[in-house]
């Protein structure tokens, strides 16, 4: 159990925002700093689009009109419950304009589609050196079925889904509407 005072100290240091604290390290007697470690879990980058497509070897394998492109990165340790929560949040996010011009409509309200594209590079760790590390990304054997499950969970919510091809060299074309880009980090 993390002592309340340590959590309060960490919250104060982060201006009230602690994205997914995993562990707090209480200061050693000679060190007065409290350290907070974070873990990256599933990350989805959503782009609101007027149209989008994904091509593999000059063949269009998925295309949508108005809706979202969901770039999906599965982290080591993610599971079906994380993916299903991400899908529910994706479907419910109110990032489309209503008649008054406010962000008050979801992709479901709009009747839009979602293009789901796997992208392990979303989990790049760039804290050290100039070459990103991808050790936080899940192995393809775990990631592929979870990306498919994310797409299936969106389909179950009544959304038309198109997909890229897992592990392929894909070319994604899109027209970002707004531009509106949302990063969705999903805690375990």
Describe the structure.
This protein has 188 residues and is α+β, with helices and mostly antiparallel strands. The chain folds into two domains: 35 residues, no CATH class; 143 residues, D-tyrosyl-trna(Tyr) Deacylase, Chain: A (3-Layer(bba) Sandwich). It contains four helices and ten strands; from the N terminus they run αβββββαββαβαββ. Strands 3, 4, 5, 8, 9 and 10 form a six-stranded mixed beta sheet that branches. A two-stranded antiparallel ribbon has the order 1-2. Strands 6-7 form a two-stranded antiparallel ribbon. Strand 8, helix 4 and strand 9 form a beta-alpha-beta unit. Helix 2 crosses helix 4. It is globular, with a radius of gyration of 19 Å. It starts with a helix and ends with a strand.
Topology:
Layout: H1 4-13, E1 21-25, E2 35-38, E3 43-56, E4 59-64, E5 67-73, H2 80-92, E6 96-97, E7 103-105, H3 107-110, E8 113-118, H4 140-156, E9 160-163, E10 171-185
Helix pairs in contact: 2-4
Summarize, please:
It contains four helices and ten strands; from the N terminus they run αβββββαββαβαββ. With 188 residues, the protein is an alpha+beta fold.
Q: How many DSSP-defined strands?
A: 10
Global mean pLDDT: 85
Q: Report the total helices.
A: 4
The helix/strand series, from N terminus to C terminus, equals: HEEEEEHEEHEHEE
**How would you sum up the major sheet?**
6 strands, mixed
The number of distinct structural domains comes to 2
How would you classify the helix and strand content by structural class?
alpha+beta
* Principal-axes shape call: globular
| Low-confidence region ranges | 1-26
Give the helix level as a range of percent. 10-25%
- Intertermini distance: 18 Å
CATH architecture of the largest domain: 3-Layer(bba) Sandwich
Please state the oligomeric state of the protein chains shown: single chain
- By CATH reckoning, the class of the largest domain would read Alpha Beta
Query: What is the fold-level CATH name, i.e. the topology of the largest domain?
Result: D-tyrosyl-trna(Tyr) Deacylase, Chain: A
């Amino acid at each position: 159990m993390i002592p309340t005072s340590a959590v309060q100290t960490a919250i104060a240091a982060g201006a009230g925002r602690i994205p997914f604290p995993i562990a707090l390290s209480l200061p050693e007697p000679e060190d007065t700093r409290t350290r907070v470690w974070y873990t990256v879990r599933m990350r989805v980058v959503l782009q609101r689009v007027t149209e989008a497509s994904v091509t593999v070897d000059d063949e269009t394998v998925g295309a949508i009109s108005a809706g979202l492109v969901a770039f999906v990165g599965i982290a080591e340790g993610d599971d079906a419950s994380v993916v299903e929560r991400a899908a529910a949040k994706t479907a419910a996010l109110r990032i489309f304009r209503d008649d008054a011009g406010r962000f008050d409509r979801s992709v479901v309200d709009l009747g839009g589609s979602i293009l789901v594209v796997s992208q392990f590079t979303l989990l790049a760790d760039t804290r050290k050196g100039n070459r990103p590390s991808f050790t936080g990304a899940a192995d393809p054997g775990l990631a592929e079925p979870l990306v498919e499950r994310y797409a299936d969970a969106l389909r179950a919510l009544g959304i038309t889904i198109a997909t890229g091809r897992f592990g392929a060299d894909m070319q994604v074309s899109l027209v970002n509407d707004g531009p509106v880009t949302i990063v969705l980090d999903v805690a375990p």
